[in-house]
From TrEMBL, chain B:
<feature type="compositionally biased region" description="Acidic residues">
    <location>
        <begin position="202"/>
        <end position="236"/>
    </location>
</feature>
<feature type="region of interest" description="Disordered">
    <location>
        <begin position="166"/>
        <end position="320"/>
    </location>
</feature>
<feature type="compositionally biased region" description="Low complexity">
    <location>
        <begin position="294"/>
        <end position="303"/>
    </location>
</feature>
<dbReference type="InterPro" id="IPR003711">
    <property type="entry name" value="CarD-like/TRCF_RID"/>
</dbReference>
<dbReference type="GO" id="GO:0009303">
    <property type="term" value="P:rRNA transcription"/>
</dbReference>
<dbReference type="Pfam" id="PF21095">
    <property type="entry name" value="CarD_C"/>
</dbReference>
<protein>
    <submittedName>
        <fullName>Transcriptional regulator</fullName>
    </submittedName>
</protein>
<feature type="domain" description="CarD-like/TRCF RNAP-interacting">
    <location>
        <begin position="9"/>
        <end position="119"/>
    </location>
</feature>
<dbReference type="GO" id="GO:0003677">
    <property type="term" value="F:DNA binding"/>
</dbReference>
<dbReference type="InterPro" id="IPR042215">
    <property type="entry name" value="CarD-like_C"/>
</dbReference>
<dbReference type="InterPro" id="IPR036101">
    <property type="entry name" value="CarD-like/TRCF_RID_sf"/>
</dbReference>
<dbReference type="InterPro" id="IPR052531">
    <property type="entry name" value="CarD-like_regulator"/>
</dbReference>
<dbReference type="InterPro" id="IPR048792">
    <property type="entry name" value="CarD_C"/>
</dbReference>
<dbReference type="Pfam" id="PF02559">
    <property type="entry name" value="CarD_TRCF_RID"/>
</dbReference>
<dbReference type="InterPro" id="IPR017956">
    <property type="entry name" value="AT_hook_DNA-bd_motif"/>
</dbReference>
Length: 170, 320
């Protein structure tokens, strides 16, 4: 089950459409599971990694994947090889991810690129690595062409995610 | 010998890399009796999923188990990935063999070479299914080792690798087969220019064997990929040139040969002499006439007209 938890107010209709998209992409249920508060002392831009660890008040089962949705900016990560532009972050193979819609106008107007980023973060939760196919949602998200694509997976990534989901169910 | 295995002293709690399996932690080193022999076994637990493997201590080095790479090794990996030096082999058999060796040896540089080579190759054309799986495996092992070496999350380790492979703000370049051609390679050994091949000025617009018409997608089945690769191999081993063989050029100054006539060559005409001056009787068409009986012989009785139909059944004897 995918649980979308909002950290800021969003339109319910748009959230319903967003959940339908996630359901179509992964074939598992997706729902809006309420909202959560950003921990005190954290200011914009938010540290995505720290936020995922410290956010509280999220109820989910062990197999659930939680996607936090915020309209605030996330801080770019300093990595040994350079600075990584960060519009979302997910713990590889774990259960929590965060997605910021700050680089876009809103959920309605930029639905496609936001959904594509959401698929990317959720794919990371299901142990998908970055893909070589520019049309796939697992393509590195900082590339210029990423936001122009559709919210789909390539064959390899789709089959791998289905396999992981099947394993998780059994 | 695999890198980093020269003198491997393992202790419980050490993090090691098992080739093709990933980062493991030494869980125990104990002596067990097997078939009457007492052997020292190293028990390793894979960090990813907790799978346990026991290896006799004497075989640790030959298998290729080594300690996790250091941060300075990871810096070298970034430098290697950043460089534009590694071009994948276009011969799929050679490429598969090389990549398998690299994966089996289990060195971090070998993993980086597999990832880089296949990533560059994917800029020329989509990878076949098998190589896409190999790329994913190599990437997974590389990411998990870099994460272990730097003590960071796997997502950060992967992003740090991909920032080098896919620099932000830049699109991946489109490669051409010419970039993969090695100096002195099979193609160049032919030393046949367009003139010799009878392909002056691109007379025949043939598709290049090195660059097949765009594959539909990664959806191509494994067999399809192999077939395509097989074709490529054939193209490299003995480059087939389609079309006619080259025409021999006439020597300079010689008269241009008359245009060659098509069709069957004409029959040689018989020489005209006085005896044979009479025109031959025109050949009659149709069935040749039956041979007539010689004159003077008794005329034969006309044969009874042949009855048509089935011969009559033999009548049974009336006595019975």
């Amino acid at each position: 089950m995918i649980r979308v938890v909002t950290l800021d107010p969003f339109d319910d209709k748009q959230l319903a459409k967003f959940n339908r998209t996630l359901y179509t992409a992964f074939g598992v249920g997706s729902e809006h599971s309420g909202s959560a508060e950003i921990p005190a002392g954290m200011s914009e831009p938010l540290d995505a990694e720290k936020l995922l660890e410290e956010v509280k008040g999220i109820r989910a089962y062990k197999d659930d994947k939680v996607l936090l949705l915020t309209s605030r900016k996330l801080k770019d990560r300093d990595l040994p090889s350079g600075k990584a532009p960060t519009s979302g972050f997910a713990k590889y193979g774990k259960d929590r991810a965060i997605l910021s819609i700050a680089p876009f106008k809103d959920l309605e107007k930029d639905f496609k690129p936001i959904a594509r980023h959401a698929l990317h973060q959720l794919g990371t939760l299901w142990e998908l690595h970055h893909c070589l196919d520019p049309r796939c949602s697992m393509y590195p998200p900082w590339t210029p062409s990423f936001n122009q694509g559709d919210h789909i997976f390539c064959t390899f990534c789709r089959e791998k995610s289905e396999q992981k989901i099947r394993l998780a169910k059994s | 010998m695999p890198e980093g295995s020269a003198a491997l002293q393992l202790q419980v709690g050490d993090r090691v890399v098992y080739p093709n399996q990933g980062v493991c932690r030494v869980a125990a080193i104990d002596v067990k009796e097997v078939a009457g022999q007492s052997l020292t076994f190293v028990t390793m637990r894979r960090e990813e999923d907790g799978a346990v493997v026991m290896v006799p201590q004497g075989k640790i080095i030959s298998i290729g188990v080594r300690k996790v790479a250091s941060p300075s090794d990871v810096e070298e990996i970034y430098a290697f990935l950043r460089s534009d030096s590694d071009k994948a082999d276009l011969d799929w058999k050679q490429r598969a063999r090389t990549n398998l060796d690299r994966m089996t040896q289990g060195g971090i540089l070998g993993l980086a070479e597999v990832v880089k080579g296949l990533q560059v190759l994917s800029e020329l054309r989509p990878l076949p299914t098998k190589e896409r799986e190999l790329y994913d495996n190599a990437r997974h092992l590389l990411v998990s080792e870099v994460a272990a070496a730097l003590g960071t999350a796997e997502a950060n380790a992967e992003d740090s690798i991909d920032i080098v492979l896919f620099p932000p703000g830049k699109e991946r370049p489109k490669r051409t087969a010419a970039e993969f051609a090695r100096p002195g390679g099979d193609e160049d050994d032919m030393d046949l220019d367009g003139d010799l091949m009878g392909l002056e000025g691109g007379e025949l617009d043939l598709p290049s064997d090195e660059e097949p018409p765009a594959e539909p997608e990664e959806e191509s089945s494994e067999e399809g990929g192999e077939e395509e690769e097989g074709g490529e191999e054939g193209a490299e081993d003995a480059p087939k040139k389609r079309g006619r063989p080259p025409k021999a050029k006439p020597a300079e100054g010689a008269e241009p040969a008359a245009p060659k006539k098509r069709g069957r060559p004409p029959k040689p005409k018989p020489e005209v002499t006085a005896e044979s001056a009479e025109p031959a009787a025109p050949k009659k068409r149709g069935r040749p006439p039956k041979a007539r009986p010689p004159e003077g012989a008794a005329p034969a009785e006309p044969a009874a007209p042949k009855k048509r139909g089935r011969p009559p059944k033999a009548k049974p004897a009336e006595d019975e």
